[in-house]
């Protein structure tokens, strides 16, 4: 088990460059498998274990993939298999994004139930329901999901129920389907907008009929393109909150004020000083007294559930009692008992928590049960007295590239201790790459 050790009492100060988005890169990699010709080049790839797992998953399907530093090259003119390997697919939620593309390209998929953080109920029923309306048939052979379609998927009217994953899967299935697909109640997160732009550049025909209705006219082929993964708004939000919680000053480069509007509105309400700059957002919270707040999580553009554990930690530093109602994942409070071990005064009432601010925290041993909870506990350690040790810190690696190193560069007294071999994403171990298209229109693939 991996452990983060942090000694509190220092104010974070400096500049941080936000990496590519975890919630953006995984569906982009899956969408790249829809290209029937060419080599996809994705840049600004974040250094994450989930990325490695998804790349290995594609390789297990005999796809040609090369990861080198912060870019990925993907050629899927030919897909050799449709049965994924449990070793990789069972680790990450992102494996779910392959269901739609594999049905669209190969008419068949055989995939384990996806893994990921345990943050509450995240059923895949909506995905299955929508794809069945497009002509797919699914058989549950636990722990696998088997799906197939006779011929091409058929355009249909489907309901995404504001689920991000469902919206993405249905979009990716529909772009190569026969006829027109209309997706009602589509989620509208920035990561979805980015995937739509990526697929449109590949030749897909996608447009918004209304705010939450997406119309897709299926095509027969898509061409690979180059695309840059956008900055991670959740990572940006985490560092903005960290600056506020420690009463520090950080310039968060790549932070998009429009994508983070819900968080920035809360900052203004509780009194966090902000400055919009040309390349990001700066927090200037030196010794600033902050007030309590009431907030409710919800679908974008409302306050994101992924930042709820982090804002909980910030509320511990404010005056008064804050109230947070969790409406996305009703039981996403695994961080609360761990914060209570540190002296936090937090009460859980169903899907709502009440946070008494202004009480000191004390370092102790705590445990992360998901990546955002782990980040929240790390922030709590930054403001606690003495040393805090966060076990199960490997969860944090799934969503935060170089998290400890970045915090150390921002003046944190923090270290990472491995009790198991860490995931390796290193150019020195990956020298394979897809060679430029030859005259025969085929690609050669090399890997050491």
Write the layout of secondary structure elements.
Layout: E1 3-7, E2 13-17, H1 22-32, E3 40-43, H2 49-60, E4 64-68, E5 71-75, H3 86-89, H4 99-106, E6 108-112, H5 125-133, E7 137-141, E8 144-148, E9 157-159, H6 164-174, E10 180-184, H7 190-202, E11 205-210, E12 213-217, E13 226-228, H8 233-245, E14 249-253, H9 261-270, E15 274-277, E16 280-284, E17 294-296, H10 308-315, E18 321-325, H11 335-341, E19 345-349, E20 352-356, E21 365-367, H12 371-383, E22 387-391, H13 394-397, H14 403-409, E23 413-417
Keywords:
448 residues, UDP-n-acetylglucosamine1-carboxyvinyl-transferase, Chain, four-stranded mixed sheet, elongated, disordered C terminus
> What would you report as the Rg, rounded to the nearest angstrom?
22 Å
DSSP strand count = 23
Mean pLDDT: 89
Largest sheet: 4 strands, mixed
CATH architecture of the largest domain: Alpha-beta prism
Overall 3D shape: elongated
Lateral arrangement of strands in the main beta sheet: 21-22-1-23
Poorly predicted runs of 5 or more residues: 116-122, 422-448
The number of helical elements comes to: 14
What is the highest CATH level, the class of the largest domain? Answer: Alpha Beta
Q: Separation of termini? A: 29 Å
Helix/strand/pairing category:
alpha+beta
The CATH homologous superfamily of the largest domain corresponds to Enolpyruvate transferase domain
Fraction of residues in H or I helices: 25-40%
What does the model show?
- The protein is an alpha+beta fold and 448 residues long.
- The protein folds into 2 domains: 204 residues, Alpha-beta prism (UDP-n-acetylglucosamine1-carboxyvinyl-transferase, Chain), CATH 3.65.10.10; 209 residues, Alpha-beta prism (UDP-n-acetylglucosamine1-carboxyvinyl-transferase, Chain), CATH 3.65.10.
- 29% of the residues lie in helices and 24% in strands.
- The strands form 6 sheets. The protein has a 4-stranded mixed beta sheet with strand order 21-22-1-23, covered by helices on one side.
- The chain is elongated.
- The protein starts with a strand and ends in a 31-residue tail after the last strand.
- The C terminus is likely disordered.
């Amino acid at each position: 088990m991996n452990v983060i050790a942090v000694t509190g009492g220092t104010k974070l100060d400096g500049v941080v460059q936000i990496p590519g988005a975890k919630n953006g890169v995984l569906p982009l990699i899956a969408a790249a498998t829809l290209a029937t010709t060419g080599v996809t080049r994705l840049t600004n790839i974040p250094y994450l274990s989930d990325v490695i797992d998804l790349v290995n998953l594609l390789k297990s399907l005999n796809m040609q993939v090369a990861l080198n530093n912060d870019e990925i090259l993907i050629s899927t003119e030919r897909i050799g298999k449709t049965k994924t390997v449990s070793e990789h697919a069972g680790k990450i939620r992102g494996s779910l994004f392959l269901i739609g593309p594999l049905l669209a390209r190969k008419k068949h998929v055989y995939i384990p139930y996806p893994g990921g953080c345990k943050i509450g109920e995240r059923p895949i029923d909506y995905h299955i329901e929508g794809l069945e309306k497009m002509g797919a048939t699914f058989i549950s052979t636990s722990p696998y999901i088997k799906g197939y379609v006779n011929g091409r998927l058929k355009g249909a009217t489907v309901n995404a129920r504001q689920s991000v994953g469902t919206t993405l899967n249905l979009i990716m299935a529909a772009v190569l389907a026969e006829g027109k697909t209309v997706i009602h109640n589509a989620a509208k997160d920035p990561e979805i907008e980015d995937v739509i732009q990526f697929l449109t550049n590949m030749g897909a025909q996608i447009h918004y009929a209304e705010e939450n209705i997406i119309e897709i006219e299926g095509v027969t082929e898509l061409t690979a393109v180059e695309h840059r993964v956008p900055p991670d708004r959740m990572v940006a939000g985490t560092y903005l909150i960290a600056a506020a919680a420690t009463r520090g000053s950080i310039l968060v480069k790549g932070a998009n004020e429009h994508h983070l509007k819900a968080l920035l509105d809360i900052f203004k309400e509780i009194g966090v000083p902000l400055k919009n700059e040309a390349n990001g957002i700066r927090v200037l919270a030196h010794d600033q007294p902050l007030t309590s707040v009431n907030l409710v999580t919800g679908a974008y553009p409302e306050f994101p559930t992924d930042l709820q554990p982090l804002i909980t930690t910030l509320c511990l530093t404010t005056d008064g009692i804050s109230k947070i109602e969790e409406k996305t994942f009703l039981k996403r409070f695994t961080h609360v008992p761990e914060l209570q071990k540190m002296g936090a005064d937090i009460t859980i009432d169903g899907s709502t928590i009440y946070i008494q601010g202004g009480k000191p925290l004390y370092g102790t041993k705590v445990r992360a049960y998901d990546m955002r909870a782990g980040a929240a506990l790390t922030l709590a350690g930054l403001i606690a007295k003495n040393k805090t040790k966060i076990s199960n810190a490997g969860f944090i690696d799934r969503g935060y590239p170089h998290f400890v190193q970045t915090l150390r560069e921002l003046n944190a007294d923090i270290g990472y201790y491995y009790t198991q071999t860490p995931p390796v994403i290193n150019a020195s171990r990956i020298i394979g790459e897809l060679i430029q298209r030859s005259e025969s229109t085929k690609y050669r693939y090399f890997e050491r």
